[in-house]
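Practice problem: predict the structure.
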Amino acid sequence: MKIKFLGGAGTVTGSKTLIETNGKRILIDCGLFQGLKSLRELNWNPLPILPSTIDCVLLTHGHLDHCGWLPRLMAQGFTGKIYCTSPTRSIAKLVLLDSAKIQEEEANRANKEQYSKHKRAEPLYTIQEAQTVTSFFKVVQPNTPVIVADDITAFFENAGHIIGACSITLILEGKTLVFSGDIGRDDDVLMFPPTKPILADYVFLESTYGNKLHPDLDVKKVLETLINNAIEENGTVIIPGFAVERAQSVMFLLWQLKTEGRIPNIPYILDTPMGANALRVFLENLQWHKLSDNNCREMSKMFTIVSEFEETMRIIANPQPKVIIAASGMVTGGRVLSYFEHYIGFDETTVIFVGYQAEGTRGRRLLEGADEIKIYGNYYNVRAKIFQIEGLSAHGDQKDLLNWLSALKNTPKCIFLVHGENLPADELRIKIQNQYHFKSNVPLMGNEIEI
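Answer:
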């Protein structure tokens, strides 16, 4: 059996792990590379194998860095099934269509304003290509065996992180392989704790926060303080929000704060069409999260939910203090860029990051103290106050990741640490060896192993 790391190795984006066994090829996740230009350019490269030879894709969850390359895979010849849970199918549809829409819009804008280095900018894929993916989804039930090929069985088990997210256990050639996907937190605001694996010969574990512990913060108190301070200065608060799960978590916390009279009665805006659609997915899948039907509906009433870009421009033009949640969460695209163009240069503006910021993204540069950022070919001075609330991350920290391994009844032959930058992955490797005495390895992109 061969395992090839085609993405999500040495980086937190572009997750793609290929399994070759007995004439079958199975791809675990099919994500988009984000962040550094050298990574983004990989999205344009073909896979080292023909997509038409891949039998199926097993999708852990619907975030762009795990599903965002599916339209390219289809365009290059893949015709197999894409196995995932029902919420993941719904979220992936939203994410892919939103991604395609943003890419088309940015290509058109680059051509119109002539800031592309290419003779003609083209989107990585179109809305039509994203829509094509939909008919290939095959919904599976969690904790239920799924025969994905001859003598190959898969189990999908709750991973927390976002709605519908699962770890995947594959049983093949008499071996048990566990792919973590992204592991959520044991004490998440919305998601249930992730299910721990019991048996595994080989584990492929994400390591996004492999070298960090989330601070023990009262995140509601921090949000309350930052918002009230901004409003006292007559400023606007911008929260770059991952449209799935983090946006809903922040909405829930803001709703609690407003209900408790701890933040003022000002406009609260959700300006991410995908985030608004994700709310419906939460309402349709109450068994997957902690919110009640009433909680979902009541917190939605508090927010002005924006769909049309013309409304975005009206909000920007209104000088009234307000709180805005807008995608994308790493400021790589989406409506949040329009707000940044207008507000990032004002001292009274407050920007609050609530999730992981990958290397090379605008979000990471702002957290590292950049004094200017580039948006649509133009540079903008950064005078806004920049904060991060790590206590709201959807990823488990080092303690959570180590705890996820704690129920294993056997000693795995190897733990492969993926979906993390090199330093966090290597620190987690050392922790695993010290705590469990499990052999661990940090594969590089393009590596192939035989087991």
